[in-house]
Amino acid sequence: MQNHYGVRTERYTLVNFYPVNEWELFDQEKDPLQLKSVYDDPAYAKTQAELKAELARLRTLCRDSEDVEPVKEKKKAGKEPNRKKSK
Q1: Cβ count near 11 (within 10 Å)
Q2: Is the pLDDT score of 35 beyond 60?
Q3: Mean pLDDT of the chain
Q4: 12 exposure class (CB count in 10 Å sphere: 0-12, 13-18, 19+)
Q5: DSSP E strands, the chain
């Protein structure tokens, strides 16, 4: 799954896949399995704008940067990081 952030309400899910700047909007009332994005549907323009504003508000509240960095891969099992021994 591509790195992403988003916001969800009782009815809608708005997701931004920020590494590729792609957006998806799902109407869970009409599409509970989230199979077809309605992001480009003009009928959802107001909902899209409201959810983007809410996402921006939440990112500000959480002090989330516009420059989101990819998550680093976990170290392979069995390899311990070098640690200083305490005396």
Answers
A1: 11
A2: yes
A3: 81
A4: buried
A5: 5-8, 12-17, 22-27
